[in-house]
From TrEMBL:
<dbReference type="Pfam" id="PF13560">
    <property type="entry name" value="HTH_31"/>
</dbReference>
<feature type="coiled-coil region">
    <location>
        <begin position="68"/>
        <end position="98"/>
    </location>
</feature>
<protein>
    <submittedName>
        <fullName>XRE family transcriptional regulator</fullName>
    </submittedName>
</protein>
<keyword id="KW-0175">Coiled coil</keyword>
<dbReference type="InterPro" id="IPR010982">
    <property type="entry name" value="Lambda_DNA-bd_dom_sf"/>
</dbReference>
<dbReference type="GO" id="GO:0003677">
    <property type="term" value="F:DNA binding"/>
</dbReference>
<keyword id="KW-0238">DNA-binding</keyword>
<feature type="domain" description="HTH cro/C1-type">
    <location>
        <begin position="8"/>
        <end position="62"/>
    </location>
</feature>
<dbReference type="InterPro" id="IPR001387">
    <property type="entry name" value="Cro/C1-type_HTH"/>
</dbReference>
Length: 114
């Protein structure tokens, strides 16, 4: 159970929540939650379900949660976001070129009409 407690602590830290905040959300005392995180207290199924819901995952995901897998998932998501950002930058550059071309075209027409 100590491993599960470490997973719960890691998830709590990732959310930026204090033990007090999580304890309130679970409607338990801070010492009771601390005992869950340290593995002193075994977690029953209903409490496990409650914790899984709190962290927006299934009980299976909570039990099988792996920091390495999570890091890989985050890295993959970052890669996708980075690609989208690069695509947007390319679009912005193309639009800037079009604006410059249109400006030059207008300038040449103005010079020709003068």
């Amino acid at each position: 159970m100590k491993t599960l407690g470490k997973k719960i602590r890691l998830l709590r830290h990732q959310k930026g929540w204090s033990q007090e905040e999580v304890a309130k959300r679970l409607d338990i005392s801070i010492p009771a939650f601390s005992k869950i995180e340290t593995g002193i207290t075994d977690i029953n199924l209903s409490r496990l379900e409650q914790i899984a819901v709190l962290f927006e995952m299934s009980v299976v995901q909570l039990l099988t949660y792996n920091e390495v897998e999570q890091d890989q998932k985050i890295a993959s998501e970052l890669e996708n976001v980075n690609k989208k950002l690069m695509d947007r930058e390319t679009e912005v550059i193309d639009l800037q070129k079009k604006v410059i071309e249109l400006f030059e075209e207008l300038r040449h027409k103005k010079v020709a009409n003068a």
